[in-house]
Amino acid sequence: MKQRAFVLRLERCVGCRNCQLACKNEHQTAGPINWRQVREGEEDGRRYYVSLACNHCRNPECLRVCPEKAYWKRRDGLVLHLPRRCQGCQACVQACPYQAPRYNPETRKAEKCNFCLARLDQGLLPACVAACPTGALNMITWEGDPGAAPYSQWLAFLPDPALTLPSLQINRSGEGRHFWQQVQR
């Protein structure tokens, strides 16, 4: 079984929000709706920026709770939303521990990250990944069941990954180093 996943290298994320802006631009989301958000958190006295969108979980709560069956999971692990089936009940919005589905009051439907499916079909990276100037955000494909390995460096201020098994791998390697290097004059 294959599973597409996002990888976040924490030591490289500077909180610039280019990923968030690229997503908004790519999908033309309404007003304050952002499918990708950069959150700040602190752990062990250190501040982190964490870029989060839909994690295309291996055990997605949105899919489980939707009474209209407006979600489906592809063979590559992507969890997609079918707006034509959505009745706007917001059960998915309330169930997702990562707050990935967003309710759009204009359309009266939920919406969420689709991993830039149209871009993937063209052989391109998701807009958020392509826009990251530091290489902090990337994508991979897991072959088979990765087990708990992706969660070995999970941040305590994020929801417990055991519930939904998010397809997000957080790497904290290189802590104490800075991506930006001082330029000698």
Automatic annotation (TrEMBL):
Transmembrane segments: none
Keyword tags: 4Fe-4S, Iron, Iron-sulfur, Metal-binding
All residue ranges annotated as the 4Fe-4S ferredoxin-type domain in the record: 4-33, 77-106
Gene Ontology molecular function terms on file: 4 iron, 4 sulfur cluster binding; metal ion binding
Xref: Pfam families: Fer4_11 (PF13247), Fer4_4 (PF12800)
Domain of life: Bacteria
Protein name: 4Fe-4S dicluster domain protein
Species assigned in the record: Neomoorella glycerini
